[in-house]
Design a protein that fits this description.
Helix content: 10-25%
Radius of gyration: 57 Å
Number of strands: 18
Mean pLDDT: 82
CATH topology of the largest domain: Ubiquitin-like (UB roll)
Structural class: alpha+beta
Largest sheet: 4 strands, mixed
Strand order of the largest sheet: 2-1-4-3
Strand content: 25-35%
CATH class of the largest domain: Alpha Beta
Length: 400
């Protein structure tokens, strides 16, 4: 029962008594008194009235109609017997849908009706009040968290979520994915979500990495007149040292994003390499060529015993043909090298390189030779060349 309708029933009964007395008990009262159902905000009450229009009935019951109120039928409609008059007053609602707030008016009478009236899809949604809860004239706060289809990506896998969640934190909880201490989402945990949104879990790892690194040896150069200018000799090989460096490394989803050095310790000290650099000026070799220096005739003549510097000359007691035979003849690698380097001349020189195999003086001494290589016999030159090849390989000669 509506309170104001209860009060009005008393008033109507009194009016009926007065009218009955005035008409002297005639049947006019029965004719003018009409049964009507008055429904105000979903609460119905049957009344009897003498009013001529809907507006008369509302006025007689002190129901003030606002422009936002809904009245059916209209206030100017003539009242008939057994008519139902429906009044749904306007109600102010503070609405929040997925965090978006607005102030609305509705003629609905319950929370569920209000959401339907305001166009909010509440299917599967989370409400702060029961859908059947009746609305008040004012002070109605309705919070709605709609159902959403979301994807949480973590560790290379998609985790589907279909639920009424409002924030990223709620979606993460719904997915069952756990965050470690330093992990974070692609959006803030308090971020409001929309349907179809994808959230990515970023895995963070902070680890300590130990790395061994070389400490490059320094190189010290000494000057010495025991070597010719342009010649060098390693007096002390030297050695690189080693150190251990400790880093703090940060990775996100396996990719390094930060590397910070935290500590460094020397494990072995480097040893300086000492190189001796020659300062002695080179002497121009004397011309020890024979009578023709390679111009006197057939360079391949086995009887040519000249010691000249020409391309076909021989050295020492060996002729050019004897040198070729010593080297193994055509097809031998030694034969090819000497042919390219000196054209079989044991005294060949360009001022820097000497002899059949074009030795540097320093290299000559390193393999046991003394003096100028071109002054040695072809046999000794070949012996020293084979020793050099055994120690350093064929790469000592460009012609190899």
């Amino acid at each position: 029962m509506i309170d104001f309708l209860k009060n009005r029933k008393v008033q109507i009964a009194a009016q009926a008594v007065v009218i009955t007395g005035l008409v002297g008990g005639t049947g006019a009262v029965v004719t003018m008194n009409k049964p009507v159902t008055l429904d105000v905000n979903g609460q119905a009450e049957e009344i009897r009235t003498f009013g001529g229009t809907v507006g008369d009935i509302l006025d007689s019951h002190d129901i003030d109609v606002d422009k936002r109120d809904q009245v059916k039928p209209g206030v100017g409609t003539k009242v008939d017997r057994d008519m139902t008059i429906t009044v749904n007053t306007a109600k102010k609602v503070s609405l929040s849908v997925d965090g978006k707030k607005s102030s609305e008016w509705t003629n609905a009478n319950t929370v569920g009706q209000a959401l339907a009236d305001l166009g909010v899809d509440a299917k599967g949604a989370d409400l702060n009040a029961d859908a059947k809860q009746r609305l008040k004239e004012d002070g109605n706060d309705i919070d709605v968290t709609t159902s959403k289809d979301l994807t949480v990506v973590a560790d290379g896998k998609d985790h589907k979520v279909s639920a009424a969640v409002g924030t990223a934190k709620e979606a993460l909880q719904e997915s069952g994915v756990k965050l470690k201490k330093d992990d974070f989402l692609s959006v803030p945990m308090s971020a409001e979500l929309s349907d179809g949104q994808v959230l990515t879990v970023n895995r963070v790892e902070n680890k300590t990495v130990k790395d061994k690194q070389a400490i490059k040896a320094k190189v010290e150069t000494k000057k010495s007149d025991s070597l010719y200018q342009g010649e060098t000799k390693v007096e002390s090989e030297g050695r690189d040292g080693e150190k251990r460096v400790v880093y703090k490394v940060k990775t996100i989803n396996g990719e390094e994003v930060k590397k910070e050095k935290k500590d460094e310790k020397v494990l072995s000290e480097p040893k300086t390499k000492v190189v001796v650099q020659g300062t002695k000026k080179k002497e121009t070799p004397a011309d020890t060529g024979g009578s023709d220096s390679g111009d006197s005739g057939d360079s391949g003549d086995s009887g040519d015993s000249s010691t000249g510097g020409g391309s076909g000359s021989s050295g020492g007691s060996m002729s050019t043909e004897e040198i070729k035979a010593m080297l193994g003849g055509p097809g031998s690698k030694w034969y090819s090298i000497v042919e390219c380097e000196s054209n079989f001349n044991p005294r060949a020189s360009n001022g820097t390189h000497f002899g059949l195999f074009q030795f540097l003086p320093s290299t000559w001494r390193n393999v046991g030779g003394s003096g100028n290589p071109s002054d040695a016999s072809p046999q000794e030159q070949f012996q020293r060349a084979k020793k050099l090849q055994a120690e350093a390989g064929w790469s000592q000669w460009q012609c190899s």
